[in-house]
Write a structure and sequence with these properties.
eight-stranded parallel β-barrel, alpha/beta, 376 residues, elongated, three-stranded antiparallel beta sheet
């Protein structure tokens, strides 16, 4: 009764043989079925699949070493796939099966395909076994080192606020674009950083959207920042969050996300920037809206007088936002900010790639120390 509820079952060879025995009559040939090589593993997978599971992964750790080595066999009713693995000279094998299935379930929850999840889980188990050999835990057949990744030195992803896209789904839809299309075209046009901002979206669709955007940014090795929502950031393993004035305390955000997340903080003026800087948690500052903007109607624009004083007292990059477009980007950059964050200029553009290219050209020209005369 349970098998039809399973997306995947992961028996080892003795377990597979016992399940086949228990679900067959004594007169059936498979009642005494034995598995001792890859062809018989394939047959076992077929028999187990016939019991109702959507897919089967027969683990080959019990195969004779001299015959087939260590290989797992996958079957989903359509195809077989073999996952070869290295036998590890270690006693730290306790819990390998549970760890494998738990890792597969975790990766499926994060949006991986079943094939991707299995490969990730196998790699995870191998790394955990290797680490347990280097950092022994327990005695005898000790457990794996499930926390091996914490022993690895972590680094914050490098980032550049030069052309920083802040998304707006409604603007994109109004132009007939999906948000995925806008992000992809913006990156093609030179966007250096993406912030996913969805103030009114429920958590489940927000997470699903963030997963899709994360695949795009990861493919281009660009950071994905989530606006305000630490839970969404953690759920999709985004690179950081942006905290507005009325959002969560940035110190709490840092405590949740750890030292390697990118945390941006909106500051209203130089004094606020100094206070935030004293906390030591912000990796970049965003200004309040410089010019009037439809996305920040609740607050008056701060005008151009604000950025130079904020930049002067800041030890982290400052990015300007609010009503910025290709006609005023040069003027904004002249105030000393390291980049421009834009919403409607890209999300509401007929061609987000061309819109981003215009901004990128202006920023590159400014950074090269060339005159902006002739630029919009």
């Amino acid at each position: 009764h349970l098998f039809p509820l399973c997306a995947l079952i992961t028996p080892n060879i003795p377990e597979a043989c016992e399940i086949i025995r228990l679900t067959s009559s004594p007169n059936d040939a498979q009642h005494s079925f034995e598995v001792n090589d890859v062809p018989s593993m394939r047959r076992a997978a077929e028999l187990l699949y016939s019991l109702g599971a959507k897919a089967v992964l027969v683990k080959g750790g019990h195969l004779p070493v001299e015959d087939s080595g260590c290989v797992d066999v996958f079957y989903d009713g359509k195809m077989f796939r073999e996952y070869p693995g290295e036998r590890m000279p270690t006693l730290h094998t306790h819990g390998t099966g549970c760890t494998l299935s738990a890792a597969i379930a975790t990766r499926l929850a994060l949006g991986d395909t079943l094939q991707q999840a299995i490969q990730f889980a196998k790699n995870f188990v191998i790394d955990a076994m290797i680490s347990a050999m280097q950092h022994p835990i327990g005695t005898g057949k000790g457990p794996l080192d499930h926390f091996f990744s914490l022993r690895k030195p972590l680094q914050m992803k490098s980032f550049d606020v030069k052309v920083y896209l802040v998304t707006h789904s409604e603007m994109a839809r109004a132009k007939g674009h999906t948000l995925e299309d806008v992000v992809t075209k913006a990156i093609q046009g030179g966007a250096t950083m993406i912030q996913l901002r969805e103030k009114s979206m429920d958590t489940k669709p927000f997470v699903e959207l963030a997963k899709r955007i994360k695949r795009i940014t990861s493919a281009h090795n660009l950071p994905l920042i989530i606006n305000d929502r630490i839970d969404v950031c953690l759920a999709v393993q985004a690179d950081g969050v942006h905290i507005g004035e009325d959002d969560m305390d940035p110190v709490v955000a840092r405590n949740f996300l750890g030292p390697h997340a990118i945390i941006g903080v909106t500051v209203r003026d130089a004094g606020h920037a100094q206070v935030m800087q004293s906390l030591g948690v912000a990796d970049y500052f965003g200004t309040d809206a410089i010019f009037p903007t439809p996305t920040k109607t609740e607050k008056p624009a701060t005008r151009l007088e604000g950025p130079p004083t904020t930049v002067a007292c800041s030890k982290v990059p400052v990015v300007a936002i609010g009503g910025i477009n290709h006609t005023n980007t040069g003027t904004v950059l002249e105030q000393g900010v390291q980049g421009v964050a834009v919403v409607s200029e890209i999300c509401a553009a007929d061609d987000p790639k061309i819109a981003t290219e215009r901004l990128t050209d202006i920023c590159d020209t400014f950074r090269a120390g060339k005159s902006l005369s002739g630029c919009p």
